[in-house]
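Quick start: what a row looks like.
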Amino acid sequence: MAHDLSNNELFWCKRYSFLLSKGYTLRVRYSPSWVPSWRDKRGTEGLPRLYEDHVENVNPDTLDATSHNGTVVFIKKIYRDEHPFEEDLALYLSSERLRKDPANHCVPIIDHFEDDEEEDIHYIVMPLLRPFNHPEFETVAEALDCMKQALQGLKFMHDNRVSHGDCVASNIMMDAKYLCPNGWHPIAIEETPNLKGNLQHRKRSDVEVVYYFIDFGLSTRHPQGRTQFVTGGTARDKTVPEFKLNIPYDPFKADVFILGHMFQTEFLTKYRRLENLDPLTRLMTAPSPDERPTAEDALKSFERILNIFSTSSQQRLRRIDESEAESIAQDFAFATKHSINHIWSFTFPPPKPSHGEETGQSETGVTEQAGKGTDLSMILRSR
């Protein structure tokens, strides 16, 4: 019923039939004929939280849907007058030629089309992804892998003359289909697709996890051999020094600052045992853009630093707020647990999906693996 939806959700409800004609089915909550499952029920059965269709979408620009083959995807609406280049840049970075590059960590675009009512509105369709840090990282190697992929992805964009403009933590996601093989609810991400239980996940170190940059609304494509300076600072990271100056600046160097600052806030200030990365992140966030490395040089420095971690990469990440006693106890529990798991997995090895295998999701949203896989477990992937 329309009056049970927020104003943001009403937009999608009005497009239900249109998106269906494009091969995408929105959740029943957005069907024009929707009647809340808890309506007219009494007692505990009348609690909305017991039913999947009570979950409200809070992001006005994106919504999950199920494609004709049962795969859960995300649809993003783009207002061309606000972000005239976002769709074109996303399609460029997801083009067949660039998609073949293993260093490409830009979100794949599955489909794109125009609205049937408002010509200013366009849509892009993307895979179902999760925030890069949910569930939390366990080991040093897992954190290093994420940071390495992010640097590779930034270098790839810069090599192809694209500055991201807003590569903050919320714009880095991960493909978690192997990490969470039973799927998750696209909005209530800590729960199963049907909200009947909590999220179940494997260890990152046991599966392949690919990280992606999303949201190219503030991105710029530059001519070959020339950097197009920009003005303004509308990115979410307001600490970039040049954003505070009303003069043109190099957006490539701003990208390096933003990503370096993300490494600091999401890793170095949350976890111990990553201290060897501090000099690099300080350089990436130097006040003067001229003192910052390029994305290529930052990646080279990072890869050299990896050698320092060679003997400690499988250690547990210690949280900054842990006491010494807590750290020792948790390190011991971690080592014991993983020793037992290692013996068990060696004796009864589970099948592991190989990179590139197709996956689908059933009508209930549960991810279905399409075939047996090979062992993809590795400390750090050479992408």
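That is the whole record. DSSP finds nine helices and 14 strands in the chain. The chain has two domains: 7-127, 129-309.
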